[in-house]
Amino acid sequence: MAQAEIGLIGLGVMGSNLALNIAEKGNKIAVFNRTVDATRKFYAEAGELQGQIVPCETIEEFVAAIRPPRPIIIMIKAGDPVDQQMELLKPYLEKNDIMIDAGNANFRDTMRRFENLKDSGLTFIGMGVSGGEEGARHGPSIMVGGTEDSWKRVEKVLTSIAAKYNEDPCVAWLGENGAGHFVKTIHNGIEYADMQMIAEIYGILRDGLKMSATEIGEVFGTWNRGRLNSYLIEITEKVLKAADPITGGPIVDLILDKAGQKGTGKWSAIEAQNMGVPATAIEAAVAARSISSMKEEREAAEKVLGLPGGELDIADKAAFVKDLESALLAAKIGAYAQGFAVMSAASKEFGWNLPMPTIARIWRAGCIIRSQFLDEITTAFTKDPDVANLIVTPAFAAMVKETDGALRRVVSAAVLAGLPVPALASALGYFDSYRRSRGTANVIQAQRDFFGAHGFDRTDGKDSHHGPWGSGLNA
Ligand code: 6PG
């Protein structure tokens, strides 16, 4: 029997779906799970794909079933379990075999795993996979980090299973070691910002315009047929219109307003801070999830402080709803510009040479942030791959100029009505700070010099780097 092209360990939801996708695209795959029952159940339910699947009950059998050099996808819970699984696997592997971590790993763990395998003859791929269960089964977006040789070994299989945007596969080799997992992390950071901004707009419609969930669903449905067309807007319409099977009312009204988070948004914000790159929309989104989880404290605070009394001051509701659409687009531009700026800094910091047009290209389909908008980003970065910031490319500068007025009106109205819009406001603040050549940090520099003699540069270039604070001003 011909050997399998690839192996997969971990038949949980994501692993099973990925394995079925691989098999369905005509690739023979060996599978293994820690508990044998899961392997048997998976195989029994694989139907007509069974012919492409080699179910294995021992690691020896599993490794022997794969054609060397063996690519082995590990799809298990991120963190220590991956290290443990790698240790278990290592004694059975041979030179040039490739362990592939397809979970949402912290790229620093991926870098460490690379480093640890350096002299072992084995190699490693850190692979970001986006698209959830459905994506894994029918076409995810795949972000690969590793050696070019290891990429070449898996390119064919991964290309066959990736989502396609107009025939163009959403998979690419993005660079060495942690590049793939870093890009996946930033994908998730942007996902957090996108989701938070949508939630803020929903809040304005619900609490400001007093619209029902179903009515708001209609608004998102309309927007999904326009410039905001994207997977997240599409599912927002669906979740807002879904009825609760128990009460018959909108399910969204019954869902507790406490958001979970598994870490990728936080890592994006931390890495942005580490490199000194402003990613305020992502940071605001992470902070908003944290504040959402403080439900009991928020309930207590509302009793003590009350809600700000202002009503949303809107003369023309239809025009305001149009403004909300443009505001969301403007804020989204800010979030994506920040995410790409973080990747560009990381590319230099870690020596990856990350290809910005390619990243935008492979996010156009398959992943959670997939959208028409990413096609526009692909075009902008293809024309100008080394641009300092997406918002100064001609196409996006024009979009910012066209929509930032709406963002300003929406943020102002929401702030006056006491409706929280931290991510939308952060995007506006980002535009306003980034586009202003004369800022206010001269005061900060003067203060730093005053209390700490930290020095400053002068605008006239003169060689005098301290202020006249000594002459009695310190008293
Ligand atoms: C994706 C998703 C996926 C997952 C996140 C959710 O790209 O397919 O981002 O990776 O849904 O882990 O993260 P939180 O639980 O932190 O929201």
Topology:
Layout lengths: L5 E4 L3 H12 L4 E4 L3 H9 L8 E4 L2 H6 L6 E4 L5 H10 L8 E4 L5 H11 L5 E8 L1 H7 L2 E5 L2 H14 L2 E2 L2 E2 L1 E5 L3 H30 L4 H12 L6 H11 L22 H12 L4 H14 L1 H11 L11 H34 L5 H7 L10 H11 L10 H23 L5 H13 L6 H12 L23
Parallel strand pairs: 1-2, 1-4, 2-3, 4-5, 5-6, 7-10
Antiparallel strand pairs: 6-7, 8-9
The structure holds 6-phosphogluconic acid (6PG).
6-phosphogluconic acid (6PG) binds next to helix 8 and helix 11.
Spatial ordering of strands, largest sheet: 3-2-1-4-5-6-7-10
Overall mean pLDDT stands at 97
Number of helices: 19
Provide the structure class: alpha/beta
Number of domains: 3
The rounded distance between the terminal residues' Cα atoms is 88 Å
What is the β-strand count?
10
The largest sheet, given as strand count, sense and whether it forms a barrel, is: 8 strands, mixed
Estimate the global geometry from the Cα principal axes. Answer: globular
Binned, the helix content reads 40-55%
What is the assigned CATH homologous superfamily of the largest domain? N-(1-d-carboxylethyl)-l-norvaline Dehydrogenase, domain 2
In N-to-C order, the SSE pattern is EHEHEHEHEHEHEHEEEHHHHHHHHHHHH
Write the CATH fold name of the largest domain.
N-(1-d-carboxylethyl)-l-norvaline Dehydrogenase, domain 2
CATH class of the largest domain: Mainly Alpha
Poorly predicted tracts of residues: none
Q: Roughly what fraction of the amino acids lie in strands?
A: 5-15%
For this entry, what is the oligomeric state of its chains?
single chain
